[in-house]
Each structure stands twice: as C-alpha cells, then as structure tokens.
Design a protein that fits this description.
- The complex is a heterodimer.
- Chain A is an alpha+beta fold.
- Chain A is 30% helix and 17% strand.
- Chain A has a five-stranded antiparallel β-sheet.
- In chain A, helix 1 runs parallel beside helix 4 and helix 2 crosses helix 4.
- Chain B is globular, with a radius of gyration of 19 Å.
- In chain B, strands 1-4 form a two-stranded parallel sheet. In chain B, strands 2-3 form a two-stranded parallel ribbon.
- The longest helix of chain B has 15 residues.
- Chain B is α/β, with parallel strands linked by helices.
- In chain B, helix 4 packs across helix 5.
- Chain B starts with 8 loop residues before the first helix and ends in a 9-residue tail after the last helix.
- Chain B has one domain: Alpha-Beta Complex (Nitrile Hydratase, Chain A).
- Classes of the chains: A alpha+beta, B alpha/beta.
- The interface between A and B is large, with 80 and 73 residues.
- Strand 4 of chain A pairs parallel with strand 3 of chain B, so a sheet runs across the interface.
Chain lengths: 208, 195
C-alpha cells in the first residue's frame, strides 16, 4: 500500500532534533510495549512482516502524531485482536477509554512465483525497479519505483515480505543493494550523491 | 475518563500486557525475563567493533567482507543482526543509514535506535537532502565528499565504520571504544577526540 509509512523523500518536515542523553525507553510503558512485541513474535502469534504491515495500516494522522512506541503498541495490539488472542472491547474496558487500532488488512494476491534457484542479477548489473502496486504490504519505497540503478551487492535469500505479511505461500529470494544516483531519483537539482536501497528480486527487472 | 476519550498509552500498554499474561498466550508469565534480551542490545557493542577494526587490520578486513561473522566473533549477534553489512567511511565518502519505511537497525551492535532516527523528519528528508540534514545536525561536509545513503528496506542491517580521528595514534582499543558514538555508526557524526 502507498501508505504514510513510506516517508522517503516527502517534503515539509522540519529539523531532526536529537535528544542529548536520550534513554532507551522514556517511560515504563515503552519498555512494556517492546516486550509485548518480542514476546508475541517469539510465541509466533505473528511474524515481523505482519507486524510492520499492521503499523503501516494505522490511520495516517494517528501514525504521524504517535511516536515510535505508540505505533508499536497499536500494531502489536491490532494483530493480537485480529488473531483472536485478545478482545478489543475488553481491552478498551480495561484501559478505561478508546484504544485506536489499525485499519483492516487488504491482502495481496499470490503472484505464484517460485523460489529462484540462483540470483537473477549480479554485481555491476543495471536494474530497473518495477512500478509495484500492492493493496497490502510491500517494501519498495515509492521514491525508487521506475528508476534505474546498479547492483552493488547481492544479499542471501530472505523471506519475501509481500507474501509472508499475508500468510501466502512463503518463498525466499535474494535481495539486492541497488545504488541510485541522487539525480536519477530527485532530478537534476538534487544534492550530488547516491542512495542505496535493499530490494527483493521480484521488485526488479534488467534495465535495457 | 469518558468512554469516547483515547486511553493513555500507559493504560493501553498495561491492558494488553495484563490480558496477554492472563490468557497465557505468551510462555513467559511476566515478560520480565526479557530484560536480559534488552541488555544485549547496546550500541557500545558497535563501539567495540569499530575500535577493534581501527586497531586490527585483519579484523577490519573480515568486518568489511562479512560483517555478521565479524560481529559474532565479539559475541554480538541475534535478532535484527542476522545479516550485517559494514560500510566504510573514507575521506571522500560519507555513509549514512536510515530506514525510511519503519525503523530497522542492527540491534546487536547499534542497540534500539534513538527517537530522532525513528522520526518522520529524518526518515523523509535524509534520502533526499542528506547534506542539509547533516549540516543541521552539526556536520558540515566539504563539497568534494560524496554522500551515500543506505536505506534499510529489506533484511540487511547496515553499520557505518567511521573514520578514525587524527591524533588517536597509539590509543588502545578501550580508549578508542570510549570515543565512538552511536551517531557516528549511523553516520550523522564524526568521531572526535575529547576536548
């Protein structure tokens, strides 16, 4: 989905404000929330791709307003409710107020591709990112879709997230570190430099 | 509190934790045993890796060719550290790490990331105007220095190997580890000698 989470390249945000001496957790509930995520994934109630997508499905205004651990709390709780582990009304009763969850999932279809036997692309090769459109989870940032870059590294096969976030038949495929010239992504006025994006094989085609 | 108001995150988190434990849905009754997991997620581990790379050329070569194994040599491995790639700063190239779509980080060596790294402002801006973001954060790069931004969109977890500061010749690994910062391993700061 082309959601609010896909922030790369958006304009209008202000300065980055580091907090001197920032603690790992600002409050006990942030720590609790982190433990809820670790415990639920360890118990295989959901996987990391389902979790990321649950956060992505948050109402955009809530997503931007919430800080990291509130997004985590919303994503984890959404899945615990969707998987039937916990009841939303009971949680709201226990919390003493509304408990906003993410919006319902719109699943990806099965593309029925097979697990590749060997990497399709090699270091040095030119590739183009497909204009991926998915109703559900994907890990192709909008800012690199349709753009051409060079493979600088081939990483080992990892579970394909567009499938595993939706309980589709799993497959593993290599991911490629693809280097894009900044002007290719942002136009001729861009600051000189480059951006490297880590992309699953399904997202790419050979550039002509 | 009215039923229409959103409960505080504190109340919400407590409600989920209590319900989950009551259900027995997670094997650990109290979640307290996870404190040991959290303790292992410390960016000072990364500082040890950097200091060793600066003092041991063979280790540095291993670190750059197989970051996962080289970090594991020092005992730093685990969730979000399954495939670590270390990228080396040079006088002509500054590397920077971001996760534009969530906030992925190499937990075993960089720890849980700071708020600014997870902020929409950093995630949105740093792929598009990295020099300006760096300047605002106090790092002014010469025009000849190329900027390379690494977006953590899949399962590779990146770590920047910063430049060793001039004037640290002859320092021990411990001394060097003490001056390496988390920011320098994310790439938004240089390592400097104490004033």
């Amino acid at each position: 989905m082309d959601g609010i989470h896909d922030l790369g390249g958006m304009e209008g945000f202000g300065r980055v404000e580091p907090e001197p001496g920032e603690p790992v957790f600002h409050t006990p509930w942030e720590r609790t929330t982190f433990r809820l995520l670790v415990a639920s994934t360890a118990a295989r109630i959901f996987n990391a791709d389902e979790y990321r997508h649950a956060v992505e499905r948050m109402d955009p205004a809530h997503y931007l307003r919430a800080r990291y651990y509130e997004r985590m709390l919303t994503g984890v709780t959404t899945l615990l409710v969707e998987k039937g582990v916990l009841s939303h009304p009971e949680l709201e009763a226990a919390a003493g107020g509304r408990f906003p969850l993410a919006r319902p999932v719109r699943p990806n279809g099965d593309d029925e591709r097979r697990e590749p036997a060997a990497p399709l692309f090699a270091v040095g090769e030119r590739v183009r990112v497909l204009r991926v459109r998915r109703p559900g989870h994907t890990r192709v940032p909008r800012y690199c879709r349709g753009h051409e870059g060079s493979v600088v590294h081939v990483a080992p096969p990892f579970s394909y997230p567009d499938a595993s976030a939706h309980g589709l038949p799993g497959r593993r495929e290599p991911t490629y570190h693809v280097e894009f010239d900044a002007r290719e992504l942002w136009g001729g006025e861009a600051e000189p430099g480059c951006v490297v994006v880590d992309l699953w094989e399904t997202y790419l085609e050979a550039a002509r | 509190m009215s039923r229409e108001e959103v409960a505080s995150p504190e109340r919400r988190a407590a409600a989920v934790a209590e319900a989950l434990v009551e259900q027995g849905a997670v094997p650990d009754a109290s979640l307290d045993s996870l404190a040991a997991v959290e303790e292992r997620l410390d960016w000072r581990n990364g500082a040890r890796v950097v200091a060793k790379a600066w003092t041991d050329p063979d280790y540095k070569a291993r670190l750059l060719s197989d970051g996962t194994a080289a970090c594991a040599e020092l005992g730093f491995e685990g969730p979000q550290g399954e495939y670590i790639v270390v990228v080396e700063d040079t006088p002509d190239c500054k590397n920077l790490i971001v996760c534009t779509q969530c906030s992925c980080t190499a937990w075993p060596v960089l720890g849980l990331p700071p708020d600014w790294y997870k902020s929409p402002a950093y995630r949105a801006r740093v792929v598009r105007e990295p020099r300006r973001v760096l300047r605002e954060m106090g790092l002014d790069l010469a025009p000849r220095v190329a900027v390379k931004v690494w977006d953590t969109t899949a399962e590779t977890r990146f770590v920047v190997l910063p430049l060793r500061p001039e004037g640290s010749e002859g320092w021990s690994e411990d001394q060097l580890a003490a001056i390496v910062t988390r920011e320098s391993m994310i790439g938004v700061a240089r390592v400097t000698l104490p004033a």
